[in-house]
What we know:
alpha+beta, five-stranded antiparallel beta sheet, 26% strand, globular
Amino acid sequence: MNLSILIKNYFAAADENLTIDVFDEKNIYDVYQRVVEVLTKHIDIETTVLQAMSYCFYEILDNVLTHSGKELGTVITHYNSAEHVLSFLVGDDGIGVQASLSGSETYTNISEPDALRMCIKDNITDGKGMGFGLYSTSLLARNAGLRFEVRSGNHAMVVQDGTEQIVESVFWQGTVVYLQLRTNKEIDPAEVVANRTDVAAQYNETFLNKNDLEDL
Length: 216
């Protein structure tokens, strides 16, 4: 995977705080936990954003191992504390969104633009997952996002300023999921998961100690 292209396209203005991790089925949880723990130490990041983001982040990591046909994925993260913006990218060089969805009889003949349009909808899956990870991420993007992009093949689905659009892009073999979040905006994390699970409690139990919880 060409990391230099991803960094140039998505993190050109990033400083030395850029972090890059490679994950597989053995270390996926360790990478997830390490990234979120680092973000948790930034007291200027709204806890509600982290509660929702932590859920979506793991789902996107897991999507790589479940749907891409590859054993490895890459995650790039950057936090700009001056502008209160968190950016993260999860990428792979696997089969891509269209090929993944077309593995289901329901979407056998789906086009690449339609596959990208559909992949962020609820209950859309190739049969190997729940079809909720990208949908919940799209809800997070609508609550606190600056830009949400799912790129695969020659197209990208972009959610920005409350609108969705399919755009042509330079070819990428596999899938790239990119999200920019405002971190100083309080949100309702339950809305991000459509009230299907208690993401606030899950985050609190995993990443906050007793004193932190008393301060909430």
